[in-house]
């Protein structure tokens, strides 16, 4: 464990005016609070906060951030309180420690809905003070470095969380070194064989080719000296995960991968960056399509550099990054460069971005999101995407994620432009709206009065901003129609459990599901964005149609041993009146299938597992779930009539999902609760007779069945 005086020395190296007494006091207070606590490895627990503080000194951060690192677990894991930390170390540090504590309590790898809500909280905490996330990233880095002390399940959970959330976030903030290390540490846990394979290939390659990095570095230095350019040159092999990801993306083996080496040229001035680029391109052939100028078009986190890929010795491709020393400092620490100190003063780096402006730009597009899934989608699209830079005809530049389309470009200019878009010209040529944009292209959006967003645009758009605006416009356009359908679905769902869908009940459901009012809830229900069962459970969490169905079905199946559990197979959804057979599964009871279920062919060689079952005689209650796929015309009132027809047959609609929406027709899945095969025949006959129903068929999906289990 690093000693207090050694930590102070690390800070003093870049900040001679540091408050020694403050850091020592925080060190001693944290050590006392964690006295007697140990980590999974058996080390004293305080070794962790001390190491996190040491990691942050590498980024030359201010005293408040270093002290926060020393105290970041005190509120959560010791008897310390916010009030005590505030009285000892001041409100700034107390707020930072409290912010880190709240981040620690977010379960970012939980279910989708909760994950989206926690992402909101993460961005809110970041917006208050970005140093909170800097401490959290350093905390995660040390935990990943020492992850072997955790249980296997915990290692996998933390590694996935790191790979999905913390590593991309570090990269988005411009801290590329931290992103690479976090990815590599997570890769070591999630795919140890893959990582070992890459490392073995590297060792073999080095034996065959010798020290390629040293030779290419020497060649570059020679060329730059010959051109009279003063610069430093560094080379390295890329990280195992970076190589693995490239192999997966390009679907090629290691032997066919070319640019596995990266080189960095650090010059004294911006002019020398371009001069160095010229010298390198004069000596080696540049690879087409692999040039990016982030000096003239910097990233939003302040990153500036020239990227080029050239064919080096023996035809091997190498990536070269060219930047100045100040650009390099920002490239190493990203947004954290704002707090960097040198000689006791806040470093005046002209390329460091204002963290408040950066986080504002990152969260701006999410402000209007009121849907959890859409918010999560938008955040992930923003965090995980590479950028392309495109121009308007007037020369204005817009940054978009890789794979963006002219439709995304239109919405990036303004929501009004996107909604009125009818076409686009790229570099003067008319192109389809689904065209993928490339770096440096000029995009001219064509608009028309009266144009409105189309449902098919959701398949074309890639940015969170565009998708959100399109969904919002579609919801508004269809709100009244979907609300009527939603009211019918809600009525049927509540009647199914013996309740009524009164205005009061619907208002309560809306509050529970976090919608502004009942009308919005009904519109979402009618638009298949919320299920009827979710609405019922929001008001009556203890009532379940499916529990009733299980009890009724249990009485109806004959041929099971006493106490033997079973379930209706979701792949074929057998009904009373249909011939059935049971399949015994070790530890899972019996699955009941229709005799013509396609899955049964997988068990033909295991006759000992087959059970002869049949349905009990008599009338059955409408509790057996069956899925129907309907294709209907897109006319006013059609969905409402279908719901009425089904209700007249005494069948219950438990769920409705839109599969496809086109201007002239809808395709949807209906989950119904029926009595038996005859009841199903009645419902399908009535629907087929409806002129606006183009097709209706029973949906059976073998993919929903469990994989064949081993024989008993």
Relative strand content: 15-25%
* Gyration radius, rounded: 31 Å
Distance between the termini: 54 Å
Structural class: alpha+beta
Arithmetic mean of pLDDT: 81
Main beta sheet: 6 strands, mixed
- Share of helix among residues? 40-55%
Number of helices: 28
The count of DSSP E runs of length 2 or more, i.e. the number of strands, is 23
The low-pLDDT segments are 545-552, 707-712
Envelope shape: globular
Concise description?
The chain is an alpha+beta fold and 712 residues long. Helix content is 48%, strand content 17%.
How would you characterize this protein structure?
- With about 700 residues, the protein is α+β, with helices and mostly antiparallel strands.
- It is about 50% helix and about 15% strand.
- The protein is built from 28 helices and 23 strands.
- Strands 1, 2, 3, 4, 5 and 6 form a six-stranded mixed β-sheet that branches. It has a four-stranded mixed β-sheet with strand order 15-17-16-18, with no helix packed on it.
- A hairpin with a 3-residue loop joins strand 16 (about 580-585) and strand 17.
- Helix 2 (about 20-35) packs parallel to helix 4 and helix 18 (about 370-385) packs antiparallel against helix 22.
- It starts with a helix and ends in a 14-residue tail after the last strand.
- The model is unreliable at about 545-550 and about 705-710 (pLDDT under 50).
């Amino acid at each position: 464990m690093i000693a207090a005086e050694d930590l102070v020395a690390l800070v003093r190296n870049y900040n001679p005016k540091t408050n020694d007494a403050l850091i020592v006091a925080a060190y001693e207070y944290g050590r006392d609070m964690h006295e007697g606590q140990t980590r999974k490895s058996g080390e004293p627990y305080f070794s962790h906060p001390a190491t996190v503080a040491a990691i942050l000194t590498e980024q030359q951060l201010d005293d408040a951030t270093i002290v926060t690192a020393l105290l970041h677990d005190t509120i959560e894991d010791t008897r310390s309180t916010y009030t005590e930390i505030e009285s000892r170390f001041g409100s700034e540090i107390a707020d930072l420690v409290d912010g880190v504590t709240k981040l620690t309590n977010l379960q970012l790898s939980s279910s989708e809905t909760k994950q989206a809500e926690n992402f909101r909280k993460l961005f809110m905490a970041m917006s208050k003070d970005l140093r909170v996330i800097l401490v959290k990233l350093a905390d995660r880095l040390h935990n990943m470095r020492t992850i072997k002390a955790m249980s296997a399940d915990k290692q996998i959970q933390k590694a996935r969380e790191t790979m999905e959330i913390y590593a991309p976030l570090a990269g988005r903030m411009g801290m590329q070194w931290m992103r690479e290390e976090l990815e590599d540490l997570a890769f070591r846990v999630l795919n140890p064989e893959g990582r070992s394979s890459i490392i073995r290939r590297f060792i073999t390659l080095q034996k065959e080719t010798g020290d390629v990095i040293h030779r290419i570095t020497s060649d570059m230095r020679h060329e730059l000296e010959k051109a009279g350019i003063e610069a430093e040159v560094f080379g390295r092999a890329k990280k195992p995960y970076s190589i693995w990801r490239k192999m997966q993306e390009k679907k090629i083996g290691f032997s066919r991968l070319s640019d596995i080496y990266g080189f960095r040229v650090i010059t004294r001035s911006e002019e020398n960056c371009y001069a160095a680029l010229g010298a390198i391109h004069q000596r080696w052939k540049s690879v087409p399509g692999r040039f990016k100028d982030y000096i003239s078009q910097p990233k939003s986190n302040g990153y500036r550099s020239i990227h080029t890929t050239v064919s080096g010795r023996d035809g091997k491709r190498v990536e070269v990054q060219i930047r100045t020393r100040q650009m390099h400092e920002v490239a190493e620490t990203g947004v954290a460069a704002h707090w960097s100190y040198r000689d006791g003063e806040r470093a005046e780096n002209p390329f460091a971005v204002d963290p408040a402006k950066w986080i504002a730009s990152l969260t701006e597009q999410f402000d209007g999101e009121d849907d959890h899934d859409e918010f999560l989608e938008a955040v992930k699209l923003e965090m995980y995407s590479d950028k392309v830079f495109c121009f308007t005809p007037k020369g204005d530049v817009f940054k978009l994620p890789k794979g963006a389309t002219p439709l995304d470009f239109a919405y990036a200019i303004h929501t009004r432009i996107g909604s009125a878009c009818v076409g686009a010209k790229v570099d003067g040529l008319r192109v389809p709206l689904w065209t993928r944009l490339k770096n440096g292209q000029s995009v001219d959006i064509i608009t028309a009065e009266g144009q409105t967003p189309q449902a098919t645009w959701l398949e074309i758009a890639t940015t969170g901003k565009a998708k959100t605006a399109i969904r919002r416009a579609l919801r508004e356009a269809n709100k009244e129609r979907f609300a009527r359908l939603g009211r019918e679905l809600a009525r049927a769902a509540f009647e199914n459990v013996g309740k009524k869908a009164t205005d009061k009940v619907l208002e309560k459901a809306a509050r529970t599901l976090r919608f502004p009012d009942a009308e919005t809830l009904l519109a979402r229900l009618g638009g298949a964005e919320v299920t009827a069962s979710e609405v019922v459970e929001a008001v009556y969490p203890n009532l379940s149609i499916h529990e009733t169905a299980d009890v009724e079905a249990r009485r109806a199946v004959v041929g099971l041993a006493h106490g033997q559990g079973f379930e209706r197979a979701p792949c074929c959804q057998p009904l009373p009146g249909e011939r059935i057979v049971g399949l015994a599964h070790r530890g899972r009871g019996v699955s009941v299938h229709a005799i013509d279920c396609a899955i049964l062919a997988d068990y033909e060689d295991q006759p000992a597992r087959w059970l002869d079952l049949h349905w009990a005689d008599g009338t059955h209650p409408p509790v057996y779930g069956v899925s129907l796929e309907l294709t209907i015309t897109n006319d006013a009132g059609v969905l409402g009539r279908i719901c009425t027809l089904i209700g007249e047959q005494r069948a219950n609609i438990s769920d409705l999902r839109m599969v496809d929406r086109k201007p002239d027709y809808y395709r949807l899945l209906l989950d119904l609760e029926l009595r038996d095969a005859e009841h199903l025949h009645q419902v399908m006959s009535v629907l087929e007779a409806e002129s606006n129903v183009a097709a209706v068929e029973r949906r059976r999906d073998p993919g929903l069945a469990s994989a064949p289990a081993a024989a008993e």
